Amino acid sequence: MALSKADRLKLKGVHADLVAVLEKAAAVSPVPFRVTEGLRSRARQEELVKAGFSKTMNSRHLTGHAADIVPLLDVNKDGKINAVDMYDWGAIRKLAPFIKKAAKSLGVPIEWGGEWQSFPDGPHWQLPRSYK
Fold first, then answer.
1. Which residues contact 21 (CB under 8 A, 6 or more apart)?
2. Which end of the chain is least crowded, N or C, by CB within 10 Å?
3. 113: helix, strand or coil
4. What is the torsional sign of CA 52, 37, 119, 132?
5. C-alpha closest to that of 7 among 67, 65, 53
6. Mean pLDDT throughout 32-46?
């Protein structure tokens, strides 16, 4: 599978190395996924903080060093893929190793929000702050 045109549009302004990781992962992962967000405006980040979906105004999304992706698996087997499926931790955990493997194969360091202790964020992938 390859990234869709819609995925690529959502990755506009995202660091080329992170885009390359997601392209490689899409090509090799048996778990299909969709990009939900890449580069964010300050106003969008403020909305997410206010709604409780983010805890910081220092997000890597603001600089194009982060992207959110969700798996496209019909977890509840109802014949549809909806938000319940896309944000299911089991499905997210099935996808994560393929993102990590793609990053490693390209030599790109990557951090997964699903491993954060204080505010786990399964869809979130970012380049480390030290990465330019």
1. 99, 102, 103, 106, 108, 110, 125
2. C
3. helix
4. negative
5. 67
6. 97
